[in-house]
Amino acid sequence: MVSGVVIVVHSNDIIRKGLSSIVRSIAGIRVVEQASFGELDFRASDILGYIFEPSALSHFKKLGGVCAKSKPKGILIYADSKRIDSDLPFIETNFSTDKIIDIVKETFSNSKTFLENQDNELSSREVDVLKCVALGMSNKEIADKLFISIHTVITHRKNITAKLDIKSASGLTIYAIMEGYIEPSSIDIRG
């Protein structure tokens, strides 16, 4: 399985973790979080690009020499109104989740690795299983509803987890809501 990595570099833990959580929801993208460029390991061959704070622009520009095979792509994170002179796309911390996802997808869409990841999209049956998981159904309930065996449900769940790199039911629920597979109002929060 081909996978791609987006590296989020920001000194503020809340901004870094929040943005990483959003980027992780994009199928096929894995995220590495770092507080600074100094902590990065440049040996990974499947790096799609970097999302970083403006003060790290000089470190990002140095990557052109480190990553000799391709020019690295980057997105700036603005947490305030101060702007720097750069042609790079940017994200503001007050942008909606959908807008941030659109910017990340658009920026990294020309990457060969990203295009190969499109094969990791969920099948229609996997989407059916995902919806049931997001609604809190057990494997047996899903099997009964979709007229498939429990073994098949488990296999679909494993495939969904591998494709989305989301391991928890709550994470899958958030993904299902963000992708419009289920309505938030359809979830029974009483457990």
What does this 3D model show about the protein?
The chain is an alpha/beta fold and 191 residues long. It is 44% helix and 14% strand. It has helices spanning 13-24, 57-66, 97-108, 112-117, 124-134, 139-146, 150-164, 169-178, and strands at 4-9, 29-34, 47-52, 74-78, 90-92. Helix 5 crosses helix 6 (139-146) and helix 5 (124-134) crosses helix 7. The protein is elongated, with a radius of gyration of 19 Å. The two termini are 35 Å apart.
What labels would you give this structure?
elongated, about 15% strand, alpha/beta, about 190 residues, 5-stranded parallel β-sheet
Biggest β-sheet: count, sense, barrel? 5 strands, parallel
Task: Please count the beta strands (DSSP E, at least 2 residues each).
Answer: 5
The chain-level structural class is alpha/beta
Q: What's the total helix number?
A: 8
The ordered string of helix (H) and strand (E) elements is EHEEHEEHHHHHH
Overall geometry = elongated
Distance between the termini: 35 Å
Query: Unreliable stretches, pLDDT < 50, 5 or more residues?
Result: 112-118
